[in-house]
Design a protein that fits this description.
The chain is α+β, with helices and mostly antiparallel strands. The chain has 9 helices and 19 strands. Helix 2 packs across helix 8 and helix 5 packs across helix 7. One of its GO terms (molecular function) is transaminase activity.
């Protein structure tokens, strides 16, 4: 199955075809939506492990003597405080405080950072970063920004068996590095593929709420490496219950974990404080960054809406765009919603009036003309045992 002209295949598209995946366009990429059952893929990640193709994600390399200072100015977080080998979740905001994108940034070296935007937002994030190399007072940061998206493949292994699977494929010299890798950290390891050694960057990060890894592969240096690595992981994970997983299960997993999706819980018209991400904004430790004045004002006055978790005791799902009601009045809108495979009942994320955001508040969601009870619950909906 070839990708439509307006969708880009990943380095692993032929693998997904072999596995019988159903495809969809996502952020301009031709991506596997599912291989069989969404629920089975979801539960495999919760109980064993799943393997995902994330090669649609952006990879932007920021290097130079002022790389840290530049990212401090461009993003809302304080990236200069991140240690080499660690990662930080941050936001790229506009001057009004709206979220252009949420990203993970890895500090690969003293003057080298890997910025990972979301697929559809990569062009906008890249343009915003390039537009912030100069400040209003005339300073130009000494940095180089390189788009490495097309040259990089990204494979994720997520779930409680993920570390055991990784230990099956890395060389003996890399075993301790895998075991010692902390959450939100990255390290160089070597995989033994059978056709030789393959160096990769291994990060202990993910979007599922489970322990897991994201593996960055240089597909430019070796175009066949992503397929060899996937096949190796697939084989090594067979005895652990590893299954290939598509975008559908990735979405339900991140929803259970209470993680935002840009275009739903985040956008250029949504500020971090409304989305419950106020702690990400470094107002106290940074005096200057793009959007600071607007964000400081929003924090001072308080957001006009707040993101909450909603749940009920049925499987009738509240879908994006459905109205949230209180005493017959519309007081908000659902941004994401689905039946939770893990919990066995419906869950949703929604923006509501701040006075109705307290845990325990009884609300309703208009499910196709029928007001249905939902309760505000604490986020995340699901939290793994550590």
């Amino acid at each position: 199955m070839s990708a439509p002209n307006n969708s880009k295949p990943t380095a692993l598209s032929s693998v997904h075809e072999r596995l019988g995946a159903s495809f969809t366009d996502f952020g301009g990429w031709w991506m596997p939506l599912r291989y069989g059952s969404d629920v089975a893929e979801h539960l495999a990640v919760r109980q064993a492990a799943g393997i995902f193709d994330l090669s649609h994600m952006g990879e932007v390399l920021v290097t130079g003597p002022e790389a840290a200072a530049f990212l401090d100015y461009a993003l809302v977080g304080r990236l200069s405080a991140v240690e080499v080998g660690r990662a930080k979740y941050s936001l790229l905001c506009n001057e009004q405080g709206g979220v252009i994108d949420d990203l993970i940034i890895y500090r690969l070296g003293q003057d080298e950072f890997l910025v990972v935007p979301n697929a559809a937002n990569t062009p906008a994030a890249l343009a915003a970063l390039e537009g912030r190399t100069g400040t209003p007072d005339g300073h130009t940061f000494d940095v180089t920004i390189s788009d490495r998206t097309e040259a990089t493949a990204l494979i994720a292994v997520q779930g409680p068996a993920s570390e055991a699977i990784l230990l099956e494929v890395v060389t003996a010299d890399s075993v301790e590095a895998v075991k010692a890798l902390r959450y939100y950290a990255i390290v160089d390891v070597v995989v033994e593929t059978g056709d030789g050694e393959l160096p990769v960057k291994l990060a202990r990060t993910g979007y599922t709420g489970e322990d897991g890894f994201e593996i960055y592969v240089d597909a430019e240096a070796d175009p066949e490496a992503p397929q060899r690595l996937w096949t190796l992981l697939e084989s090594a994970g067979q005895s652990y219950g590893l299954v290939p997983c598509g975008l559908a299960s990735r979405d339900s997993l991140r929803l259970e974990a209470g993680m935002p999706l840009h275009g739903h819980e985040l956008s250029e018209s949504i500020d971090p404080f409304s989305a419950g991400l106020g702690p990400v904004v470094a107002l106290k430790s940074k005096v200057s960054f793009v959007g600071r004045d607007a964000l400081a004002a929003i924090k001072e006055s308080g957001p006009q809406r707040k993101l909450v978790g909603l749940a009920n005791d049925t499987k009738r799902a509240a879908r994006p765009g459905y109205a949230v009601l209180h005493d017959g009045d519309t007081v908000g809108e659902v941004t994401s919603g689905a039946p939770s495979p893990t919990l066995g009942h419906a869950i949703a994320l929604a923006f509501v009036r701040p006075d109705l955001a307290e845990v325990g508040t009884e609300l309703q969601v208009d499910l196709r003309g029928k007001p249905t009870p939902f309760t505000v619950v604490a986020l995340p909906f699901y939290k793994r045992e550590r």
